[in-house]
């Protein structure tokens, strides 16, 4: 099966990166930061949206390069979308206990970093992002559906506009080898969320094991999640974060549901 998993970002660094250095050897062994990127909503002409993907690497050379980056700097990144199973921590508001539940983190693993305009303010950074909006947030990938698609329609209260969405998860084989990860880790499992006419097409064509090619962008969002405290057994809500792919175009490559006229 063809492999494709490629991310292109141009954005502004939100905060000074967190860089991890071994106290014994002084070697760089990791770095993480958040990047502010911009994209145009294809179903709403001229409307722009800011997203905040997490950039994470364990590569010593890239970590050392990231150590010179500061809040406000503009950076170009080329990399891959990476998922990892983690324990997510939430704090119970009733008793203060820390609760850990299995979850998935999604981040961009860089393979190339190109620092550009230094020390920009929020205002000047936004103007630079607007000039490069079309290349600020790009994703391309090939994967196989590992869940059945979930299609929904709901009406906005203020505009009464009907919003159509289709969410599904794909298994995406890695094109680039990340030597800092376990050697048997070769597949990532991002979520896809399509909107409007594309969501309708996805509902009609996608099923388990459909192979798709997606070109689109990364979307980040926070959402409320329900939990039950392991200590006091009280219910509470906590804020989780998600990063998913919003496709602009989807090609159904194999094992998809064909319309009658395609038969």
Automatic annotation (TrEMBL):
PROSITE patterns: SSB. One of its GO terms (molecular function) is DNA binding. Keywords: DNA-binding. InterPro entries: NA-bd_OB-fold (IPR012340), Primosome_PriB/ssb (IPR000424). SUPFAM superfamilies: Nucleic acid-binding proteins. This is Single-stranded DNA-binding protein.
